[in-house]
Design brief:
MetI-like_sf; cell membrane; MetI-like fold; transmembrane; globular; ABC_transporter_permease; MetI-like
Length: 320
């Protein structure tokens, strides 16, 4: 150990032996390589599974590519054709927009109502919470979509129950254009478990003192819910809204199974993702399907951005 004589009078600075510096550098480089080694699986997934295919898809959206060897650059022709020469594209956009705007608010309303009920301290809360969460795990599965097709079929459970009540001339719900999309909306509302659990966690964070003070001031149950619960839950509502909205825009399995992959009847259940699938893997028009995928990404980004922009007017955080 040596002493740095250039230091101010009365102070000594310990200087490590010069032989320790290269050893420290080697140890630091080893730690750096170990960090990159642990990051390697994530980097492979990012560039090989996510970022790489996205860049390839963006390029293909400007081409005429059919998976069979034809590949030619066409510029913005795919995007122009979507809006000027493809009525089914516009129909798929309209069906998906209806599905999102109706099913998501209904799902969140139902989830919040049930979470409020469960928050009253019911006996066996863990059991009810698990049972109500189960549909969220199964709602987008093939098995549940097949079951839904049987329930709303011409001789399904719904018509059997309504027939027992004396109703006649009941439709085949999934084969009637006026009702087919409604059955898919009901299926999405039925998968309320995930937002319900999040709402329940948010309700547990509302201070009981606020309710006690409101009761002393004479507020009834509805007043406490409107003046305390809802403002305190707005961050949770916002989170659930964005999450469920993005999921609804990407809905695919329900429409594919219930309509047999056609989007029928009369394109009444032709979700955007189902039409994209048809163009890609039925018509082998990969360039057009890639353009549709990027348009969907832009639409989801715009709706999400609008949600974040408007949140400043109705979402209240602690301390505000």
């Amino acid at each position: 150990m040596s002493v740095n004589t250039a230091s101010p009078p009365g102070t000594t600075v310990a200087v490590p032996p010069t032989g320790d510096l290269p050893e420290r550098g080697r140890r630091r480089r080893k730690r750096r390589w170990a960090a990159w080694l642990f990051l390697l699986p994530w980097l492979v997934g990012l560039f090989g599974i996510t970022l790489g295919p996205m860049i390839a898809s963006l390029y293909l959206s400007f081409t005429d590519y059919n998976l069979l060897g034809r590949l030619s650059f066409v510029g913005f022709d795919n995007y122009v054709r979507m809006f000027t020469d493809d009525p089914r594209f516009l129909s798929a956009c309209l069906v998906t927009l209806k599905y999102v705007l109706v099913s998501v608010p209904l799902q969140l309303t139902f989830a919040l109502a049930l979470a409020t009920l469960l928050n009253r301290g019911l006996r066996g809360l863990a059991f009810y919470r698990s049972v109500y969460y189960l549909p969220s795990l199964l709602g987008s599965s093939v098995a549940i979509a097949l079951l839904w097709r049987q329930i709303f079929g011409g001789s399904g459970l719904v018509n059997t129950a309504l027939g027992a009540l004396g109703m006649t001339d009941l439709p085949n719900w999934i084969a009637t254009p006026e009702w087919a999309l409604g059955t898919l909306i009901v299926l999405n509302v039925w998968t309320f478990g995930s937002p319900m659990i999040i709402f329940l966690a948010g309700l547990r964070q509302v201070p009981q003192e606020l309710y006690d003070a409101a009761s002393v001031d004479g507020a009834n149950a509805w007043g406490r819910f409107r003046r305390i619960t809802m403002p305190m839950l707005t961050p949770v509502i916002f989170f659930n809204l964005v999450l469920q909205m993005i999921n609804a825009f990407q809905a695919f399995t329900q429409s594919y199974i219930i309509s047999g992959g056609s989007g029928g009847p009369v394109d009444s259940t032709l979700f955007y993702t189902l039409y994209l699938y048809q163009k890609a893997f039925t018509d082998f028009d990969m360039g057009y399907a890639s353009a549709m995928a990027w348009f969907l990404l832009v639409v989801i980004g715009l709706f999400t951005g609008a949600a974040f922009f408007t949140s400043r007017y109705w979402v209240h955080y602690d301390g505000e």
